[in-house]
Amino acid sequence: MSIDERFESLCQKVPIVDTHNDFPYLLRVQLHNELHCDGNKFDFGSMLTSHTDLVRLKKGKVGIQFFSCFIECKDDDYLYEDFNKPNAAVRDTLEQIDVVQRLADEYPGELNFVETADEALESFTRSHGQSISITLGIEGLHQCDLSLAVLRQYYRLGVRYITLTHNCDNPFATAASSIAAGKPDHGLTCYGVDCIKEMNRLGLIVDLSHVSHKTMVDTLKVTRAPVIFSHSSVYTLTNHERNVRDDVLQMVKNNGGVVCINFFPVFLQRQAGGEVTIDDAVRHIKYVVDTIGWDHVGLGSDFDGIPKGPIGLEDVSKYPDLIRRVWEETGAAEKDIAKLMGLNVFRVWKRCEDVAKSWDQSDTPVESNWSERRWEFFEYCKDFPEIYPGSFTAQQNVYKDTQLLDNSKK
After folding, report:
1. CA 58, 258, 200 angle in degrees (round to 5)?
2. Domain residue ranges in the chain
3. Would you call 5 a catalytic residue per the annotation?
4. Is 22 marked active-site?
5. How far apart are CA 287 and CA 401, in angstroms?
6. Residue 20 bears catalytic tag
């Protein structure tokens, strides 16, 4: 059989899994999430001018799509350090979750919002690859706004991985962009360690794209579950702080994790420069395979979160071209190509669920807060009953007298 024939046969059994697509952010920026307002020409079931639509997802043989619920860092200065500054990141993230769920609801039978790894694979198998399983990732713990309670609620809403940082530090970890700007690499904070524990307890996949080198190392030392890099590439081939160094690749192998190769030309470009093509993506995939094996590589396109893809990888319809090219270049066994297509990501997702199930059920949620969080209340709160004697002084608060409980007394 030819590579084309073998690929078509394999696609009947194995879904292509993309761990990172930013299409929901386009809906936010360009349509304000109003999918059917007057004059709106949006139709996900038609050919759009973005990288992603239902027609091309089907042509690309995508079986499981992680849509990113991305919200930018909420300060014009991405090196900001005032994490107590009020912002709208949680509201905006909830809107992103909502628009993905609404999009899936509009295409029953073609898009299926799922919450577990088994549900995603069963949907693919039951529909003979005609239904695309949709799930969610969140691109940065700044979107939790200091709170593990928010993280838990995201999980309940269907989010299945969270990236520890985007292009800004947060109370949990250091971002790669901060290191590129010359700031010190503090890695994972103590609060970040608590966050990893809570993600493991819940079954949330830890995503290490965008984070600093030390954050990668620190996280891989403390996590009890395998990690992913939802959209990263290889540092040895392209020296960018976002990319994964060889020492971390070895730790990923020991951890059982997966590096999902990014299609952003900036992270794939050859050192000599020039046009970035599908062959550069193949090089990065092969490097991971040659260094730590077929069990640790996947696909994380970053489509619609990048200006354009490499030549030959222009949109979501092009995954088959990439898979066939890798197969031709490597002469790999079918079982290994299946791992690249998506079974590695499925394994990690399933393993994170199993780690959560094995957690001691007597363990309560991690209740810690960031040690520098500023808790502000009005003076009238002191007039309320104590929970127990001395409970008012159990924590450090800041009280303000700018409001009264009964403003008629002013």
Report:
1. 105
2. 3-358, 374-409
3. no
4. yes
5. 61
6. yes
Q: Whole-prediction pTM value?
A: 0.95
For 14-23, b/e burial (b = at least 16 CB within 10 A) is bbbbbbbbbb
Residue 360, pLDDT score: 74
231 catalytically annotated: yes
Catalytic residue among 18, 20, 145, 353: 20
pLDDT digit string, tens, across residues 79-113: 989 999 999 999 999 999 999 999 999 999 999 99
Chain segment 109-134, per-residue pLDDT in tens: 999 999 999 999 999 999 988 999 99
Catalytic: 32? Answer: no
| Cα-based distances in Å from 292 to 161, 247, 257 | 23, 11, 11
* Stretch (H or E) spanning 211: none
Q: Which residues of the chain have pLDDT under 70?
A: 271-272, 407-410
Which CATH architecture is the domain 3-358 placed in? Alpha-Beta Barrel (3.20)
Cβ partners under 8 Å of residue 204, min gap 6: 151, 155, 159, 160, 161, 162, 198, 352
